[in-house]
Every structure is written in C-alpha cells, then in structure tokens.
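Fig. S4 source data, part A: sequence.
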Amino acid sequence: MAQQIPLHTLLGDRYKVTAHVLETADGDTILDGVDQILNRKVSIVVASAEHSSQLVANARQSASLYRSSVQILDLGNVEARTYLVTSHARPDTLLATLLTEGGGEAEEFGEEIFGDTGTMSAPNTYVVAKDAKAPVAGAGAAAAATSISATRAAAEPEVEPVEEYEEYDAEEDGYYEGDEPAERNGGMWAVGIAAVLVLVIGAGAVFTSLGNMVNPTETQDALGSTQTSASASETPQQTGSPSPSPSATEEKEPAAPRLDGNFTRTVPSSAALMSESDGTLGHLTDGNDASTWVSLAFGSANFGGLTDSFYLSAPLRDETTVNSLTINQVSGTGGAFNIFASDDASIKGAQQIGSGTFAATGETTVELDKDAQDGDTKYIIVQFTEAPRLAQPIVQGYPFGLRLAEISIK
C-alpha cells in the first residue's frame, strides 16, 4: 500500500493537506485541504496506481456536466500518485462519483435531455402525467418506469384506478356554504340575546353593591384634604439651597472605543488591486482567530512594485479616544504600518497617531497618541507601507504578503 501524503503538504503550490479522512482497502485516499489563495475548504482524492486512469476518466466526465454533484478544481501528481482537487464533499460521494467505474457518467435520461452524449430521433420528447390525482413517483422510479428516448420502447406506468364518488348537488339540497337552516338560526339568536341580558343584570348588581359600600360624603371630604396636602407640599421653600448641577466631567463620560462595521480596503494607485478579497474583510472583526483576510502574494516587500501602500479603514460606534490597536498577523514578520485617526474613511487630512512593525507572528499591539485625538476620533485607518515576509507563503515563490486574523482596539 502506498505511503500516505503527510499533513501540511502543499499540492500544486496551492492546496494544503489538513486531514486524512478515509483510506480504502485498494489504497485510494480521501483528504481534506485548504485552498491557500481563496481560503476555502476542498477535498483531495488520491488514487491508487490501479485506479489512476479511472479517476482521470471520471473527473473529465464530471467536469463536462454542469449537473455534477462534485466540482472539479485541479488535477496533478505527487509521489507518482494521481490526485484530484474538488469542492468539499462527503467521502462516500467522492468514492462513488470518481473511483467507481461509470461513476462520472451522465444519467441515462440526462443524455437525451441535455445532449451530453446521446442522440435523439425525436427532439422535445417528454412524459405527460396520466392522472393528476395519481401519486407522484420519485425521479428514479419515473426513469425506471418510462423511457424518455423516442427510439426505445415505452413501458406504460401503472395507474391506480380513480375511485368514483357520488356528485353532491348543494343547490338541490337547498344548502350553500354560509347558510344555516331557518330554525337553527333562530335558536342561535335566542341564546345570544339571553347571554347579553344575563351579563347586563350581573353588571348592574355588582355596581349597586359597590356603591352601598362607600359613603359619598366621606369620600369627597377625603379627596379634598388629600388635594390640599399635595398642593402644600408642591410649594417650593425659599430658604433651601439649590441642588448642585452635574459637573462637566459627569455630563460627558468618554465612550469605550468600539468598531462599528467592517473594514474597507483602499489602494490609492489602483482601486481594483486586491478587490477579490473584499468579501472576507469581515473576518477582521468577527472575533474568530481561525478566519483570516489574505492579501495578494508579492515577490518583494514593496508589494511587487504595484503600489507604494494601501490602507484599511473602519468607523467607530461613538466619537472617542482610542488608546491602543492590536493586529493579529497569522504568519510572518517584518513589514511596516501606520495608524491614523480621521473624520471619515479617507486618509486625506487624517492625523497619524501611531506606527509599528510585525516583530513576531501573532498579536502586535501599538499604543496610540491620545492627545492627538482629543476624544473626537470617528474612523481608525491602518496604512500598510511594507509587506511582511510570510513563514508560509500564500503562493510558492512569492513570500511577501498579509494574512490577518483580527484587528481590534481598546
């Protein structure tokens, strides 16, 4: 049996092996992996020497069908074994689709309908349901019971006999929906009137009893004395000292710094540069260190000469002073960045309040200039002027770039 591919192996300079999922008795292997460029999970099928040709044939067949349950991403060889990279899928689905003879072929009825490989002598052939009331069979049963191709003998599906029911004539019986027999309607009205009378008589008895329990004269006297006391107590005393007004410090407590929304990317010299990663900018503030935002891979620290800098900006929940900023750089050291406070998402007119570099992998915290903010910071901007060198490059041969897990403030 061939030796397993070790974990963390990088296939095709792009797909990193993260787990061994399954290995069959024939030596076929299913692996989990991660696309290092698009940061998504994938499945990797490694065929034994006997099944390599079968894997390639099924992969080509599945790739030609847009209805295939498995998306083919890449094909290659490692240690004299053929591997196939697919969308992340269940191992049993991968084995049935890619390592079984005929697993990647189109369904029989799919050939005629979608024109994959079959021919048709009668285009637009279809099956008409014999009885709208008959139970609808599953797709597999329908395909087995009825052949769609006009060149094949059609087997008539069994149709359950429709039961006959006696027709009910509402008009003949003198009854329609919403109508009631006259004698029944009269009885209902009598019951309703009796119930209303009982309620009225009961309510009158209750109010009469309550009135006898209260002396009107005494009640009025009590109300008058209460109103007089209340008026006297509401009269302000001139001799008392006025209550102290709250101080300025108590009126305006500084709000705790908090980001409100996701970061946005701006590349002044090239607006579209790295725009394909904008969909993952929310990972910078989701509180999950396992999710990352990844830049392009560059051959040099100056971003490959494509731009001299770019910046990420995010709004604060309230105007306040930001004491510190922490960046979690997953891989690599070096690089350089500046931190600005601004009234909007643009770096133009922003006030620089800090700068830093990635001395080590993990969290890097920069203490910020609080006096320069004066409590009115609305946006935080992080400008990257130099890319760090990554210990695990995004793309082999391009060792510079950014792989950020979180950006947080205090």
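Fig. S4 source data, part B ends here. Residues 105-184, 225-241 have pLDDT under 50 and may be disordered.
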